[in-house]
Design a protein that fits this description.
The chain is mainly alpha-helical. It is built from eight helices and three strands; from the N terminus they run H-E-H-E-H-E-H-H-H-H-H.
C-alpha cells in the first residue's frame, strides 16, 4: 500500500496514521523538500528508512542528503536500483523496531557524545539505568562497543553526519 503526499501537513498526518515502512521522497516539492521531510521523519519515526528519488540531484546535494540521514539517493533514470535500496534500508533499520522510545533517546544521546552521567541527568534517570539501556542497546543491535553503537546511529541517520544539521528533537 502506498500513500502520496505533497505538503508538510499531509506528511505529518501520514506519519501518524499511515505509518509507512519506508518513505520515498522527491528532492524538491515546492515548499516542502526532502530535507524537511527527512527532519520530520527522524523526529517522529526514526526507524523508518528515507530514500530520495529524484530526476536530477548534484553531487553536493546527494552528499548532503546522505549526511542528513537519508538511506540512499536513487535517480529516476535508474529505478532498477530502487528495490535493492529499499531492501537494504529495511534490513539495516529492522533492529531499531525492537527498541523502546527511551532506548532510542539514549542511543541518540550516546551517539551525540553525551557521557552516561549527562544522559542520566538530562533524562531524569539513574546512572545504572542508563548503563542498563546501553547494555540492552548493544545486545539488541548486536554490537560490542560504544563506538559501534555510534557508528550504527550515524548509519541509520539518528544523528546527522553534518554537525550543522540538528534533528527536531535533538535539543531536548
Amino acid at each position: 500500500m502506498i500513500e502520496r503526499v505533497d505538503s508538510r501537513p499531509a506528511f505529518i498526518y501520514a506519519l501518524e496514521t499511515f505509518l509507512p515502512d519506508v518513505v520515498l521522497s522527491d528532492h524538491s516539492l515546492g515548499q516542502f523538500d526532502s530535507h524537511a521531510a527527512l527532519e520530520l521523519l527522524r523526529a517522529e519515526r526514526p526507524a523508518t528508512p528515507f530514500i530520495v528519488v529524484t530526476g536530477a540531484l548534484t553531487g553536493s546535494l546527494t552528499g548532503a542528503a546522505i549526511r542528513a540521514g537519508a538511506e540512499d539517493v536513487v535517480l529516476k533514470a535508474d529505478l532498477g536500483s530502487l528495490v535493492p535500496s529499499i531492501s537494504t534500508a529495511l534490513a539495516v533499520r529492522r533492529p531499531l523496531q525492537s527498541l523502546s522510545k527511551r532506548q532510542l533517546e539514549v542511543l541518540r544521546m550516546i551517539a551525540e557524545g553525551h557521557r552516561t552521567r549527562d544522559i542520566a541527568d538530562r533524562l531524569g534517570l539513574g546512572v545504572k539505568t542508563v548503563e542498563s539501556h546501553r547494555y540492552a542497546l548493544m545486545k539488541r543491535l548486536n554490537v560490542g562497543s560504544v563506538v559501534s553503537l555510534v557508528c550504527y546511529a550515524v548509519r541509520v541517520g539518528l544523528i546527522p553526519l553534518d554537525p550543522g544539521i540538528r534533528h527536531a528533537d535533538s535539543t531536548r
